[in-house]
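Researcher: Checking consistency across runs. Here is ADP-dependent (S)-NAD(P)H-hydrate dehydratase again:
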Amino acid sequence: MKQLTEQFAQSVVRPRARDTYKGSFGKILIVGGNAHFGGAAIMSASAAVYAGAGLVSVATDPVNRHALHARLPEAMILDATAPELETAVRQATVIVVGPGLGTDGTALTILKTVFAAVNAKQVMIIDGSAITLVASHHLDYPQAQLVWTPHQIEWQRLSGLPLAAQTIEASQKAAAKIPGIIVAKSSQTHVFVDEDVYENTAGGPAMATGGSGDTLTGIIAAFAGQFQPLDKAALAAVFVHSRVADIVAMNSYVALPTMVIRELPTYLKQLSE
């Protein structure tokens, strides 16, 4: 088993070249946030912006428009049920689908639209509700470079492994049957990449609060849009998310996602130097 460390993250997060512009750092599309869980999409998008993504758009329920513009004026917005969603997916370099999406019929239709529009050159991060929909409706896996970010219950749904059976060895065997990178979130997160297993050395109980997973998806998306190859970008994102939460937790009982998001640019600057 390999370990994710600050040294590994430093090897990925490098200084920006002078002759770059916003298009150089990824065009990210966040698909999620129904009328009840708009905050999930907002946190994912915020994390992507603060982690350095060049352009971020959010496909969400229209009820979230004013909140998103108030909290994150850097992001663009579109109606997740509008015909424009298909075009937005095709134009993105990285797509996040699932944060706050829900599991009703509308959510399923949105997910199927996204899966149908994506292509093999794009990166797709499948999170939260989208994982549940894939597992419960036995959806075909999309043709894209996939990153899955399940918590333990979602991993149970996707892998078929009960919580008590989710050993490293069993999870690795299950992950081998699913295309892409598996970020198995828990109190000790492990990432399954091909034949390798990576253990995250950062993070702690201060992160155990709603929205932490949504924040992680945004950071992974931003890194996938900026750094190559994808596996190293995703692995560095997992570490950075937890390490910044540890920094917040030095002076706070809980590392709220919004607190972690605010600290991202400062920590990334330190890493790049």
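Researcher: Does this match what you'd expect to see?
Model: One thing to look at in this run: The longest strand covers residues 55-60.
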